[in-house]
Design brief:
The structure is a homodimer of 139-residue chains. With 139 residues, chain A is of the alpha/beta class. A 5-stranded mixed β-sheet of chain A has the order 1-2-3-4-5, sandwiched between helices. In chain A, strand 4, helix 3 and strand 5 form a beta-alpha-beta unit. In chain A, helix 1 packs parallel to helix 2. The mean pLDDT of chain A is 88. The interface between A and B is medium-sized, with 20 and 20 residues.
Amino acid sequence: MERVPVLKIGDILLVSIQIDMSDQTALALQEDLAERIVATGCHGVIIDITALDIVDSFVGRMLSTIASISRVLDAETVVVGMRPAVAITLVELGLSLNGIRTALNVERGMELIAASREADLTYDGEVEYPEPGQTATSP
Amino acid sequence: MERVPVLKIGDILLVSIQIDMSDQTALALQEDLAERIVATGCHGVIIDITALDIVDSFVGRMLSTIASISRVLDAETVVVGMRPAVAITLVELGLSLNGIRTALNVERGMELIAASREADLTYDGEVEYPEPGQTATSP
């Protein structure tokens, strides 16, 4: 099985997705990332999708899951390098990547994470926790 | 044709090779990298091969070519993330990646490039320019 490498650069983990993601590859990536966040104490995850021609609902869901996992491990996820055509198709498909932050390229993504980290650390009031998401309730 | 994305991080271009390189992909990567070095003025190229199970003579030659192209464009190339098994196989095959610098991971690679750049810039003696190449003279 192919694995997507997770690269550590300073306080950030960088993932460049270039291969077609299967269920297994996606699961392995989620596990690898979670383990690396815990092992390194990194506070940011940048996922580069420059190489992707298509972002379908599967990849969209994978990105959302990674962002959620990272969030509970106190790391922020930014998706970077989206092609214009991919953005257009995403919106046409009705996939708006809710809860995922995006930036134009890796550098902007790093700035975004640094700025948001800075804001968190210098905030001297009460910490605002996000509202817990509505969980699916069976009728 | 698949293309390997070239990511700019500060003064460095980062390439993570995850797909099987064909002649065309290798050529495209060389062109992309050369163009990006010129366009961005970056002084370092880091090639991550964490995802590669095998480095054969084709990939070895590609790495050498990229390093040579970068060198004439005033950028240094460091190959990072080589797996232990890959290193063993390389040596067993008699491929020693001549002229290519290696580092354990991306961060070490960045340090290596920064240190070597620093050494170049703080050199306070006479700057040694390479001998101008012999130009073709029409008789």
